[in-house]
Amino acid sequence: MKAAKRLGAGLMIGALMFSMLGCGNPDTNAGAGGSDNGKVKILYSMWGSAADGSKTQEVADKFNASQDRIEVEVQAVPWESYMTKLNTLATADQLPDSGMMKEDGVIQWSTEGMLNDVSSMYEGSESQPLESLAYKANGKTVAYAAANEVLLLYYNKDMFDKAKVPYPPAVLDKAWTWDDFVATAKQLTIDKNGKHPDEAGFDPQSIVQYGASVENLPWQLETWALSNGGGYYSADGKEVRIGEKPSIDAIQKVADLYLKDHVAPLSVGQTDDGVQRTVIAGTTAMATNGAWNVGTSLNTAKEEGLNYGVAVLPYMQDKVTINTGGANVVFSQSKHPEEAMEWLKWYNSEENNWSLISSGIWMPTLEKWYTDEALTRKWVENPNFPKYEEYKSAVVDYARSSAARPAAWFYTNNTTDFNTLLGSILGDVWTGKKSAEEVITQNLDALKAAHAGSN
Question: Where does the record locate the signal sequence feature (predicted)?
Fold first, then answer.
């Protein structure tokens, strides 16, 4: 069987949230079939340290004790060598039964025959995840995200209060237009003399407080191409659309926040730490990024005195946010796919990942947590989150609204190579050396080749 290509960097959050969970015996081979006690043995792979792994094995042991047919053993591999290990096992026909898969690799592995169809996992069950969290290849569901995440707008309430500027809207119907967003950012951008970008004498070289920051990692940047009526790909993920004017114009608008509007700091789109560098650092009034930041960084900042809020994203033409989530998969080499699916179905349930959900790192995958007020309050009404009504509107309701669209890697192949190339060519756009139109037009054939998996 053909071994899959080595995957590029996915969400930083994927490493973080799973490093809190997993390990086992990395040298144990799949396919043993049974354990000493007569149960079907299922191996589950993940990235993490030995200490992390013992915690995940404790979770698996609860599953093992809950029934008498299946025994799960956790198999952990360090993050740096995880995909190398999986590729080696794939070549030897010794992949584990199930395991973690980075978002940008799911469709690629599926098209190469490495993943099992899991469309039947939730048949007859009321616990099926939101449809937007299903990874689909050729019309078949090949994985479900273990958690939900959406992109939001975070902001420093104290900065808004000091400037006497209204907070960003938490309600989708009142979302700012892009022009509203830029105009507000100008009110919150200040140079060393206290002047704003639209005032005479403003010095863009001596800004002491920026109004806004838009995270420009390639996968997050797709939000604005979609919002402007374009996108990276066609709706089925088969064709590249990034060369169309709406997509190019959207990327340029993001760059112009720094280059022309002078409301954003320079960001070269290489690291997923925008909230830490801006809102938490106290240098910027508002910043876009994912919901996971509530648990990974904002809780600590809140304890240290940060007064922050959450809002829906502004929009260009259409109201859009992207949702995503790292996948748990069943490998096609498993001799026990049904048992592997039973394990993942149990493992993906909210009650078995509650610490990650209640801390704000993960969002639930089941619709009932978004529609049943009692469950929503159980999830959100705790000190780890902003005020309930604000978070419910800007995050919980937002995630189920018409604005929420799945990230391209839920249905598009070779997003690793595409995003890697896109990130490299956009460097000159962020610094103003070239326009978005120039670099995308010049590299469009290469981007199409990356999408086709032929570069």
Answer: 1-24
